[in-house]
Specification:
Structural class: alpha+beta
Number of helices: 23
Largest sheet: 5 strands, mixed
Radius of gyration: 36 Å
Helix content: 25-40%
Amino acid sequence: MPKKRSGGGLTTTQQAAKFLGVATLSGVVLAGIALPAAGALGLATKGTVEGFDEIPANLQTPPLSQRTTILDSKGGMIASVYSRDRTVVELKDISPYMQKAIVAIEDARFYKHGAVDLKGILRALNRNVQSGGTAQGASTLTQQYVKNVFVEEAGDDPDKVAQATQQTLGRKIQELKYAIQVEEKLGKKRILTNYLNITFFGQQAYGVEAASQRYFSKSAKDLTLEDAALLAGIVQSPSRYDPVNDPAEATKRRNTVLQRMADVGDVTQAEADKAKATPIKLKVKKPKNGCITAVSGAGFFCDYVRNVFLTDPAFGKTKEDRAKIWNRGGLTIRTTLDPQSQQSVQASIKSHVYKSDKVATAVTLVQPGTGKIMGMGQSKPYGFGPNETQYNYSVDKDMGGSNFGFPTGSTFKPFVAAAAIAQGKPATQVYSSPYEMPYPSVQTCDKPYVNLDGARVPNEDESEHGPYALKEAMAKSVNTYFIQMVQDIGLCPVTQLTDKLGVVQGNGEKLPQSPAIALGSKGLSPLTMASAYAAFANRGTYCTPVAIESVRTADGTSLPVPKTSCSQAMSQTTADTINTLLRGVVDSGTGQQAGLTSRDNAGKTGTTDFRKNAWFVGYTPNMSGAVWVGSPTQTVEMVNITIGGVYQAKVYGGQVPGPIWRDAMTGALDGVTAPSFNTVDIPDPQPEKDDEGDRGRPGPGGAKPGKPGKKPGDKNPFPGISIPPNMIGGNTGGHRGQTNGGMQGP
């Protein structure tokens, strides 16, 4: 049994046998460099040679993984992301000092030998036998390059990395054969270029350009003699010779490289000595990787872009294909994010909601007609610390958002109104709209919905009861009005319309067909709401949201990108009618605090059960935006609460989200043209007159019941306007029952 040294390594005899074995086997295959002793040593047996010849003939060199740059719509940097920080450069863009330094210390005979350096093997063997250890290796620069290719192919798979770096005879043989092919195919200059681009220099830097930027904040072409010697010295052991963490050890190693350069004649001894006497001068640039480094609070948008890339078939047929392209990197991705809009979103959020507040806000801006996401931000920053999160509250679960989205409250009511108008209901439609009523039985696309548990729905306040016409009901956000509207037209037209508007729950499921959806009981995302409302602004045409305008690979090739898909979700007349109705919300209804003074705008407020969520979704003809405020965990009731340093007794959609929307939109549209809506005429109902005088006084967009003591259900107070008989009635009174998530306010 061969003896081992005390350290557990091989004995001198074993080391000699190992080196001679590798050298002898290499001699069998190296044309013109065969070792005379091959046959005598008996290693080149039939089985060994056949096994060697079965190794694949071609080394598949993968494109080197590089950093990907994500840009806004104007070409400004948002963030850089990478699995390995690398920027590939040509040899002409690498300092001659660096080229000479790496060759001198790693393979001084690089330009004189073939793929395998026989003299180097024998020299290393002699040194190691004399030292009783492994003082010197024998791999050429070409062999090291081949090994690095194996490591690059392995990626982040620890098992594959272990296989790529294992020190076995089989692995050495494989490296030798591939090294021969690389020498023949690439030549010395290309091998050196590839090596300097692929090798690891520590501090997360792969390749000489990334290393030069990391340690010196300069390009590789500007490296000085002492800079180059320092980087060349790191390669052998990036952790041991790390100049950031151990400058003394790094200095020793640098000086070793400088002396080696002098010994081989790359520099004079005087130049080497002068460089040795120069202290290391670092200008470290910290690694900036990932969406956490995004500017202007665009980390969540950056993450959304990543998720689009990894899930959209435009970037590859399978999940694995897309992940491979993303991880390889080297991409330049120009996005739809408008820097002016994004900065306005962030400024508005910062002035209205603090990151330390019990609740959060999320804001998304979308361009009608193109689907382009113009801005996206939230009050809890992208990160891993206190009051930070990686959840994007603006998007659905499959794109990095919350599990279910957030109940939207009364911001859903315009969809009900649009469906009713599309079904032929007039914009002057009147319903009795009692203060409180049970959820009615409603026809769905399948079987009728039946309220089996007696759930009831109230309005926001007991004084709020009808009859109401649509304009006033929308402006005041009257719950029972829209429940009666759903009862009248059925749920199928509503869900058919929301399907056309891309409205799905935050978990990706379609909306259920129950009356409570009319009051925004189900969770949706701000991006979904902003995109759907953009269809109103775009006169009924819905466009799917998009975040990426172009993708270019490292070699300049353009990749196909997902395009928006636009379709007519409703008629122009229906959209124009909704625009007219929602303009009234910001003019004289619940959204007055959100209204813009300098341009046409429209929108809708929403507040959910127990004030756990508050919304404002609004738009101009050229911008649509959604604002949500609430607890991401849905555990905070926004009553007697301080938000952004301002005490709120009760939070309403127009009171907190409204001003956030107003300020975000104002900045985003500063300097942008201000087109007008196409509107329709919606006459206010005229109250009936009789011998007793006016039965009711006209209100904004409608009329209220008349004198006290008159039963509003006794007579139709709106002559000339049809009211279904089963929907004329007063305050139903009674106990406020379970609402099944549907008790929504303005």
